[in-house]
Amino acid sequence: KSVKSLPKNFIWGAATAAYQVEGATQEDGKGINMWDEYLSKNPLYNPNPASDFYHRYSEDISLASKYGLNAIRLSISWVRIFPNFDNKVNRQGVQYYHNLFKCCLENNVTPYVTLHHFDSPQKMIETGDWLNRENIDKFVEYAKFCFREFSEVSHWFTINELMSLASGQYITGAFPPNHKNNLSEAIQAEHNMILAHSKVVLAFHRICKKGRIGCILALKPGFPNDKNSEADKEATKNYEVYNNVFLLDGILLGKYRTNTLKRMQNILSINHAKIKIETDDLEIMQKAAPLNGMFGMNYYRSEFIKSQEGQIKGIGSFANRNDISKTAWGWNIYPKGLYVMLKRISKNYPRLPPILITENGIGLDEKQSKNDGIIDDDERITFLDQHLYQLLKARSEGVNVIGYFIWSLEDQFSWVNGYGKRYGLFFVDFESQKRFIKKSALWCQKLSATMTEV
Ligand code: GCO
User: Fold this and answer.
1) Which residues are catalytic?
2) What was the ipTM of the complex prediction?
3) Residues 67-104 pLDDT 10s
C-alpha cells in the first residue's frame, strides 16, 4: 500500500518558515521580532545561523529543483520589510526577497509565500499583539505592500497555523508573550486573526489581478478514545470545535455556525472565559470566505479523546494509546487521520477551494553520516509515503486536494526544539552549514518522475 505515482500537475513541494531557516537575525536592517526579543532574554536556543538560508538560498532552491520538487513554501519576515513597525520600508529586506523569488522562478520551483509564520514584530507584541485591533490594520498594510511589491509571487498565504500560534502564546506559554492558561486571549486572538485574514483576502482581490490566496490551519482530528462512551464522544465534539471547526467555519464559511458557536460559548463559559465578536467582523468574514483561492492544511497527527478533563475544561484530554505507534517526540503516527479530515472538510464545507497539504513530516533525532554519504531516513520515507497514500485515496474519492508540501526542505531551527528535531529532506550540519542528502530526497525525485494522470 505504497504510492507508486503522482497525479499529473500535482504540486509537489517542501515547506520552510523565514525565522526557522534564514538566520541573519540582525542583518541588512532587519528589525526585532518577538522571538529575537524572547530568545535574547531566555537564551534557550540561538536562532543564528539556523540553516543560513538568508545567504545559501540559491544552493537550497537548486537542490529542491534537482530532487524533483516543483514548489516551495517560504515566509516573509515582516520585520525585514518594516523594521520599526511603522511604514518605513527597509529596501535591503525587500531586495533579499526579490532575489529569493527570482531564484525560485528560475529553478521552476513555484514560491508559495506566507505573510506571517509565527514571527510577529516585537512592537506588535508590545502594543497588544492580535488582541489590539489596530494591529490587525497594521497587518493589512504590510500585506498590501507585499502584494504591490512582490508581483512575481502569485500564491499567497496570510497566516500560518492560527490555533498553534494562539495556543503557544496564550495557553501553553511556549511562544511570546508567554501567557499561560488564558482562554479568553487565545480564542480572541484566533477570531482577530480570522478577521485579519479576511481583510487581507479582500485587499488581495482589490490589488492583484491574478493569483490565489488562502490561509493555513494545523488540523488535528480527535477521535473518541472509547467509541461506546457517550462522555468520550461528547468531549470529542467539543474538542473538534475548539481545535478545528471554530477556525474552519471562520475561514471557509465566514461565520460560526450555530452549533459551533454554542459549543465554543459553552467551552468558554465553563473556563470562565469570553470573547467579543463585532457584527462588522462577520460582514467582512462573510465577504472574504468565498474569495479564498486555496486552503492550506498542516497535518502531523491525530488525538484520541477521553472525557477526563485536561488543562482546558470541556474538551477532555488525550489518551495514551499503546496500539498507536508514536514518534520519538511522542506524537501519534496516524496517517488515516489525514484521510478522515480531508473527507470531513470536503463534506462539511461545500464551497471549499482547492486544498493543499501545506505541512506533513516527521522530526527525527538524526546524526550526520560517517562518510559524508547519503543519510538513511527510511522511517521518514515510510511516514511520508503512508500520509501521501491517504491523500491520494481521498483525492480518488473526489476530494479536491491538489498538492503536498513536506515539512521540511532542510533541517532547521525549531521554536520549541532548537536544532535537535530534524525534519529535512536535506541534513544540515549547523557548524559547517554543509548540506547532506537524505534517502527521502531520492524518494521525492523518484516520485516526481512519475507524474502521470492517476
Ligand atoms: C517544530 C514544529 C514546527 C512547525 C511549523 C509550524 O518542531 O517546531 O514542527 O517546525 O511544524 O513551524 O508551521
Assistant:
1) 359
2) 0.92
3) 999 999 999 999 999 999 999 999 999 999 999 999 99
Q: Yes or no: say if 118 and 162 are a contact pair by the CB < 8 Å rule.
A: no
State if residue 327 touches ligand 1 by the CB under 6 angstroms criterion: no
At residue 180, what is the residue type? Answer: K
Phi, psi of 202 (to 5 degrees): -65, -40
Between the CA of 230 and the centroid of ligand 1 the distance, in Å, is: 34
Ligand 1 in reach of 174 Cβ (< 6 A): no
- Look up residue 357 and give its three cell numbers: 497539504
Kindly report the pTM of this predicted structure: 0.98
Helix (H) or strand (E) holding 139: helix 133-149
* Best residue among 16, 19, 20 to mutate for probing ligand 1, ranked by most atoms within 8 Å of CB: 20
Answer whether 35 contacts ligand 1 (Cβ < 6 A): no
pLDDT for position 453: 52
Cα–Cα distance for residue pair 124/176, rounded to 1 Å: 11
Please indicate whether residue 424, judged by its CB atom, sits closer than 6 Å to ligand 1: no
Residue nearest (by alpha carbon) to ligand 1 atom 2: 414
Distance 207 CA to ligand 1 centre (A): 31
One-character DSSP codes across 335-356: THHHHHHHHHHHHH-TT---EE
Contact (Cβ atoms closer than 8 angstroms) between residue 87 and residue 142: no
Reported as a single tens digit per residue, the pLDDT across 256-298 is: 999 999 999 999 999 999 999 999 999 999 999 999 999 999 9
- Within 8 A by CB and 6+ apart from 319, the residues are 225, 303, 304, 305, 306
